[in-house]
Amino acid sequence: MKTLFKTTALVSAMVIALGCSTAAQNTHQTDLKKPTLLAKLPVAFNSPASLTIDAYNNVLFTSPNLHNETFLKQGLIKSPAVPVIGLINQNDTVETWYTFKPTDMEPTSGTVVPMGIAKGPDGNIYIADMQLWAGGESRILRVNVKQGQAVDVDVVAKGLSFPNAVAWHDNNLYITDTVLATDKGKSTTSGVYKLNINELNAEKPVTLAKYQSQQQHDSHLFETFTSNGSLGFGANGLAFDDQGNMFTGLMEDGTVVKTTIDKNGQKLNSRIFAKGMVANDGIHWDSHSQALYITDLFDNALYAISTEGALTLLAKNGDTTGAMGELDAPGEAIVRGNKVYVTNFDAAFGAPNMVNQKPDMPVSLSVIQLED
C-alpha cells in the first residue's frame, strides 16, 4: 500500500491564513459541555473521519489511516494500518466492522481512502473513496450488507475529484466534491453531485465527466459553490433535515449553505444559512433535537445549529492529545439517543489559525452527553 498522506507537505502548501480570529462570531454560547473519552482507538485506526448510523442503530465510522507515515516516523506504529470501518455498538464498545481487502483497493494507488459514509435506503453502506492525495481515481464504493455484516465492496461511481461527504435523501445519493477547481488565494469552486440509486450499478459504474466550468460539467452536478480560496477546500460536510433541505458546509468560508429542494427533487435556491466558524468539517442532522451538529476542525470546536441558523457552541478546547476525551481536530459528530459521538481526526495542516499542531497518540473518539 502506497504512502497516503503527508499532512504538512501536501496540505499546508495549500494554506493561506484565514485570518487572526479563532473564535466564531454571532454565536450563542451557553455553559460549555465537557467531552469525555469514549475510546482510545487501537493502532488499526489512526484517523477516524466520518460517521453514519446503520440499520441496527450502530454507529459506523471510517478511518482512512492518513497518519501512517507520521506515526511510522515517530515510531508509534510498526507498519502502516490498512483503512478500516469501525463500529460503536449499543454498549458504546468499539470494534472493527470492515477491513478493506486487496481486491477493494484502487488499482493505481493500491489503497482506499474512505472518507464520507452513509447508510443507503437499500441498507447498504456507501463510502466516498477520496483518492486525490493517493494518486488514484476517486470513487464511490458500496459496501454490501447482509444481516448487519459487510459482505463485499462494489465500485458504483467514479470520476470525482475530491469526494468528501455522502448523504442520502429519498433515493438519491448526494456527494460533496470539495475541489472542482481552485485559484489559490482567490477562490475555490466546489459542488454537490446527485446520483439516483438506480444508476448505482456495479457492472457499469457511473462515470462522471471532469468538471470544466460553470457552463461545462457533468449533468449529475446538482449545485456549485464559490468560496474564498484560502484553503483550497470548499464544500465539505453535507446533511438533510426532515423537510428535505440540503445543508452544505463550505470549509474555508466557515459557513453552511442551505439549499431548498422541491418535491420533485429540483433545486429551488441556495443561501448562506450559518456563518462564523473558522473551518467547519462534518455535519449531521438530528431529528429529535431539530438541530444540525457540526465540527470546526481548525478551532477544536463543536456546534449545534438551530432551524433558524443560530450557532450554539457546545464544546471547545485548546491543543490536546485527546487522551481525556478532549476534542482533537474533530472531523465529524453524530447524535445517537442523547449522546453526541465525535471523531477526532487529529489533522494538522500547518495553518496559523489551526489549534491542533500535530497528529499524536492516542487516537480517540469523544462523546458528549445531551440533556434528555
UniProtKB/TrEMBL annotation:
Record's keyword annotation contains Signal: yes
Recorded superkingdom: Bacteria
Chain coiled-coil ranges: none
Entry annotated with the keyword Signal: yes
InterPro entries: 6-blade_b-propeller_TolB-like, SMP-30/CGR1_Lactonase
Keywords: Signal
Signal sequence, start to end: 1-24
PANTHER family reported in the protein's UniProt record: LACTONASE DRP35, LIPOPROTEIN-RELATED
Protein known as: SMP-30/Gluconolactonase/LRE-like region domain-containing protein
Upper taxonomic lineage: Bacteria, Pseudomonadati, Pseudomonadota, Gammaproteobacteria, Alteromonadales
